[in-house]
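Narrative summary of target 7.
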Amino acid sequence: MAVNPSIQLGTSGNWAIKEDNLLAYKQLGNKFFDREFDFSRGTRATFVGRNGLIQESGLTSAELVTNGDFATDLSGWAIGGTDATNTITWETNGVRFISTTNLISIQQSNILTIGKSYKLTCDVAITTGSIGLDGATSGSSIVMVEGFNEIYFTAISNYVKIKRITANSNCLLDNVSVQEIQLDVPRIDFTDDPTGHLLLEPQSTNILAYSQDFSQNYWGKQSATVTTSTITDPTGDQNSFKLVPNSGTGGNRSIGKNFTGLSGLHTQSVFAKKGEYNYIALRTRNGPSASVMFDLENGTFNVNSTSVAFVSAKIEDYGSGWYKCSMTLDPSQMSTAGKIYTSFSVGITGNETNSFDGDGTSGVYIFGAQFEQKSYPTSYIPTSGSAVTRNQETCNNSGTVNDFNSEEGVLYAEYKIGGDSTDSYQLISLRDSTDTDSDVIGIGKHVSSNDIFIRLSIGSVNVFNNLSATPIDGYNKVAISYKSGNSSAWVNGTKVYSSSSTFTPSLTLSKLSFQWNDPNTFNFFGKTKNLKVFKRALTDAELQELTT
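Modeled conformation, tokenized:
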């Protein structure tokens, strides 16, 4: 195509991100000029990186603590508390806290910035009592649990202090790591696309308090146990568990959690990998029950029970034998409305089999459970002791008046429809600075029908007034070409609408946004692979080539 875009994003996998901004660009010859989108989320979030692993958005790679593995001694750590030199001791596998009544601690100072967000991880072995992170949140302590700990906090001081919490404590601490988290960094996700896509999602909360540590009593176990695993999990670490049926014959062979008072559609999900067994079931009961059996060898699933509570199921390949298995339910259809017992159970066949002979060692691997009020599974939200919310994302206001032509041009996007919303539409829009509806070019999604949305209104003339087109499964290429007397809309190589309506722009196009207008109305949620704006209308041949 001979004509060059005035603004483009994601072309040929070209992405640039920084805190608070997504960088689109304008190309003049061999030079590139930033055209920034204002980005906001305000919470941590995960995505799949180029390496195929789940990563934390905005997590800096710099390690802030010194000698966090206590390799040979306690150097770098200040010991505090009465008689601390005798009650805090180094061992070959960590540092031990032994205390009856004394407040003892280890600390590293001048490594945090007040007001910034951080992630602390460590391993803890508890004989008695407890230890915790001191002064991380409004002066209170965060108690650490047995095993792997993942703690997120906003610094209210410049130091990291880990102290004894309860009297008569005997705890072993090892592998302490602290990294900074930038909360407003856009996510370029590579889940199903080797060139990447911009991932924008609505707010969602993982209401499971322990998404990774299945050893917690929080999880009810039935005729099964969980054991720590050394296999690599979807993040590249070794924090998965093995779900093992007990020896002998038993039923359900599951772990699960009860919830009450739920409303709206909910989706439960878990990452699973075959072990000695190839199947895992996502189940719910409290009547009427629903069950889906997932084949972890072939990446397929079989719906065993389609009660009125069941809505849909899905399996996604995350590489290295890991699959994300999910099931969507309607809690209002349960015999006690809003009451659900959500669980994961081991299976030996593709059909529901509650009772079989276990040997006490064979099982399947599980990681990253999630239960959220959504009609589909969103990106993974880790939890470690309480529910965690990922806020809605916004991405707006790229470009200037010089980048657009109010008389004619093209708005083009390659995107995958997605995202629940309370709005009627989700929109990628080109519009004027006043945010009125007199001059707006928009494409996106009709929320109610899940169809492609098309809108062209210039000079108060509704050329294409909230029209729709049927999407294909996966990414869709959509373009609106506007020019007085000759406008058209194209979807996947086909002209779906045309108009000879004449118009005169009443305002000046000045910004490109993933929403209808400010403040935060009709936000676009989904996956955007490519976005372009042209300052002239394109021919039918050019539009067909662009959208094919």
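The radius of gyration is 27 Å.
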